[in-house]
Amino acid sequence: MRIVVALGGNALLRRGEPMTAENQRANVKIAAKALASLAEKHELIITHGNGPQIGLLAMQSAAYKEVEEYPLDVLGSQTEGMIGYMIEQELGNILPERHYATLLSMIEVDKNDPAFQSPTKPIGPIYNKEQADVLAKKHQWQYAPDGDGYRRVVPSPQPKKIFETKPIEWLLEKNAIVICAGGGGIPTIYNDSNQLVGVEAVIDKDRASALLAKQLTADFYIMATDVDAVYIHWKQPDQAAIRSASPESLSAYTFTEGSMRPKVEAGCDFAHSSGKTAGIGALEDIQSILQGDTGTQINSKVKNIVLHKQ
Fold first, then answer.
1. Which CATH architecture best describes the domain 2-111+158-218?
2. Which of 166, 242, 301, 310 is most solvent-facing, going by the fewest CB within 10 Å?
């Protein structure tokens, strides 16, 4: 099978952890152990988030006054290289006989996407209200609530096209494990001169990964996160985990923006357009998600929502 796995931010940095290279490597090592079980039997394409990392780079860039701040597309490409390197190395320590490649991935977005007028994508560290207000005034950035704190928010336009599909195919033919579309890929637009240029945005990695899975005709798309399934009535007395559902049946429910909603929408998009299955669940359950034993399965053939038995 050809499988696309989108690693959630918890695979690289857990909430509240200092953003050190050591912490990120320790978490990548855990993720690599889970991924290795899939890589032994299947074609594997890995994507990942980069919200904390790109936010940190943006802060470091803003602190250096000798030159203008680096744009988000350039910072995003830096995170793709850094995180891809760690994933390659840790997976290579487990499966040294395999080939690995990290590809910088440019993704086209629409320059008129309404997301540019309404930033919603959280990046960077979590701050209290006072800290966020100071940073917002200093850098002209926007901040929004995130749990008990605040994070910077930037535009998150819809992905339209991934430019590196052919090189990915070539690498898969050579039995390579490919890491690509990291952080949702590098957002690019065609300007008025029909030149491809970067743009100040961060594409949602689950939506970009769904597009990647479709363009590569993947057999299964897994979104590995820090919860065991998608829940209806989340954090309510009647909350329940969804075992399987169709895209149509999920449309009747509301999920948290910036958290589970993009995952559900990405899974529904892939399942609806490909006729294949998207799975959402915990990183450590990745093998059983593929087998349909845990997590949430989204497939157009499912008639009604099926809940996990308590």
1. 3-Layer(aba) Sandwich (3.40)
2. 310
